[in-house]
Design goal:
Layout lengths: L1 H41 L10
Length: about 50
């Protein structure tokens, strides 16, 4: 029985670690997208509407 419990523990740890890696990759992708949007918004003209 101890072998089954140990293998289950390893499986849970594997699932948790893979999930953590997946979440961190998603966070990196979101950060890159936010940076692109922020750069695009920096280049937009800012001022009163009559000042084109």
């Amino acid at each position: 029985m101890s072998v089954n419990k140990q293998s289950r523990k390893i499986n849970y740890e594997l699932i948790i670690s893979v999930s953590a890696v997946f979440m961190s990759l998603l966070a990196v992708i979101v950060s890159i997208q936010q940076t692109k949007i922020a750069r695009e918004q920096q280049n937009l003209p800012c001022g009163p509407p009559g000042n084109l």
